[in-house]
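Thread: Newbie trying to understand structure tokens

Hi all, I'm a second-year student working on a class project, and my supervisor (Dr. K.) asked me to get a predicted structure for one chain before our next meeting. I've only ever worked with sequences, so writing a 3D structure as a token string is new to me. If someone could post the tokens and maybe explain what I'm looking at, I'd be very grateful. Here's the chain:
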Amino acid sequence: MCSSRRTWPDEYLATVGVFDGLHPGHRAILSPLLKASRRTGLPAVLFTFHPRPVTIFAPETPPDELTPAPRKWRILAEAGIDRVTVLRFSREFARVEPEEFLTKVLGAGDGLRGLWIGYDFRFGHRKRGDWEMIESAAKRFGFEAHRVDAVVREGGPISSSRIRQSLREGRIAEAARLLGRWPDIEGIVVPGRGQGAKLLVATANLSLPEGQCLPGLGVYAGQAEWEGTYRPAVMNLGRRPSFTDGETVVPEVHILDFHGDLRDRRLMFRLRERLRDERKFFDINELVDQVGRDIADVRRLAIKWGESESGLAPGPDCC
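---
Reply by user tm_fold:
Sure, no problem. This is what the structure looks like when written as tokens:
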């Protein structure tokens, strides 16, 4: 589905941006693009950047993505995007002149027949490209241009940075309202040390994609999903202070009433509620009691949860 080469069809509709999180502001751009694609029969192409431009110009910025590549590609494919073209972003790429970006990158004057952009999209060298330039190019090169207004929620435009901040601070319900679906993390199940299974409960340890945006350390109630199966689960995200003095953050997911082997499988944990901070227990019995209470809390909360995946459109279990 992804490509960095100009191998798309003769005519197509397009949008361009980072689209991290695929939140309602992004969906406001994708929805009319996809409707036009279905109406005209022209494929929908999404141009995006890797790495994110902010990591080039502000390298001190954490490379934390709400939707790392594997998750993003799957959501876009399920939504109906026909092709994702990944543009390798660099300082050299940033020096491309705006008109060259429109013609040589997006295909104005070639196969581009329609372009949808966000309200604040700027492009090209020193961000000199703006909506007025796109409007002018659309008339000259014969494509339709559409600028989509901001989606405002809770006092301001929805943005990926607002969602990241809410998530980092453990405000799950707020992050969900801005994101339009419950936030999640996704990784591959890898073997752990086995200490939890021996003393407490079995857990699935996740190896996460590099740059995954994580919530604040702590214990979370949520749902685990693998191969279309959803189960209530509890996740401890932390450094396991009761067992180690390490600095590595490990997501450990216990799936309620499940006794199978998920090693090497993809597993997603959908966050629903923060239960508590991570803490160090000096008495193993106290730790066992607390884990039991965490599981009981998840079981109680799960009664009111739905089981459907929300994808790009808010599902019945979204905030």
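A couple of things are worth pointing out once you decode it. The radius of gyration is 22 Å. The chain has two domains: 2-156, 183-302. Feel free to ask follow-ups in this thread.
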